[in-house]
Amino acid sequence: LGNLNPRRQEKGEIIAQSYKGVVLPEKVLVEKDGQDGVYLFRKGRVCWQEVEKIAHLRGKVVLSNLTEKDWVITDPQLVTEGKRVTRINK
Predict the structure, then answer these.
(1) Nearest to 30 by CA among 56, 50, 60, 54
(2) d(CA 82, CA 54)
(3) In the chain, how long is the greatest CA-to-CA distance?
(4) Cα separation of 51 and 62, whole Å?
(5) Could you give the CA distance from residue 66 to residue 85 in angstroms, rounded to a whole number?
(6) DSSP letters spanning 39-68
(7) Is residue 10 part of a domain?
(8) Domain assignment of residue 36, yes or no
(9) Rounded Cα–Cα distance for residues 30 and 21 (Å)
(10) Which structural domain range is residue 37 located in?
């Protein structure tokens, strides 16, 4: 064991599966006509985009049908589809 103390406890995480997709908080999901989706910022307006949930990870979801260039609206309860919005850089 080298320098490790056999009585010492360490927390770890074992990843049994890997997923390919975008990881976001579960609160970004918006259901429309029985389908899961998210609101995106596109050309100054709110646009709904259908997504597929691949996995759940402690309050987060892995989603397909998104790219790293998509601007996901993280507080969907504040907007409606088609609404004109302004992006604020943080």
Answers:
(1) 50
(2) 27
(3) 61
(4) 10
(5) 20
(6) EEEETTEEEEEE-EEEEEETTEEEEES--T
(7) no
(8) yes
(9) 18
(10) 22-77
Looking up tokens 């996995």 gives 55
Q: Is residue 42 part of a domain?
A: yes
Query: What is the spatial distance between Cα 9 and Cα 5, in angstroms, rounded to a whole number?
Result: 9
Compute CA distances 27 → 8, 49, 56, whole Å: 37, 15, 12
Tell me, yes or no, whether 86 lies in a domain: no
| Residue 31 near residue 61 (C-beta atoms within 8 A) | no
Number of domains forming the structure of the chain: 1
Mean pLDDT throughout 57-85? 94
Q: What is the pLDDT of residues 36-55, one digit of tens each?
A: 999 999 999 999 999 999 99
Q: What is the dihedral of CA 7, 9, 10, 11, to 10 degrees?
A: 150
User: From CA 7, how far away is CA 16, in angstroms rounded?
Assistant: 26
pTM: 0.77
